Amino acid sequence: MVNTKKIFFFLAYSLFAQYLPDGFGFIGKLSQSIRRVICRPLLSDSDNHFTICSDVKLSLKGTLVMKDHSNIGPKANISGRGCVTIGRHVMMGYECYIITQNHKYLKEGYAGYEQKDVSIKDHAWIGHRVTILPGVQIGKHAIVAAGAVVTKSVPDYAIVGGNPAKLIKYRK
Questions:
Q1: Which helix (H) or strand (E) covers residue 27, if one does?
Q2: Which residues are catalytic?
Q3: pLDDT in tens, 120-149
């Protein structure tokens, strides 16, 4: 069940803070500070320094954990009822989708939803327009190339790309 405080901050984010501009000047820093203050009650756990860029869509019913010096890129979409954990120093490009919920089918037909958590470990890089599906874990220092659709977990230090994402090579 979602409490009223979380609903209030979700509405403040959805109606106002989400649309504040990004940038490096005074206005950008002020926008980031406002967005951080409004988003902190929406997060299950967070450290002091994280960045949520403009026009990011967050799920009210899901759980989001962000660690120090991580960011969610502009126009990202985090949806579903599961938990998304973003480790330290994670960089994310534009329009990334992180999905934690999917339809569940039986042989007889529709059986509701299933939710699986998504975890992005420390120092991972997520390229532009990456889609991360339910139950995926992105390993430490991994790189996901732009446009990839990640259907399976990515090992530490791996570079993956494509649809579905496949191992390209390992970082040294």
A1: helix 26-39
A2: 103
A3: 999 999 999 999 999 999 999 999 999 999
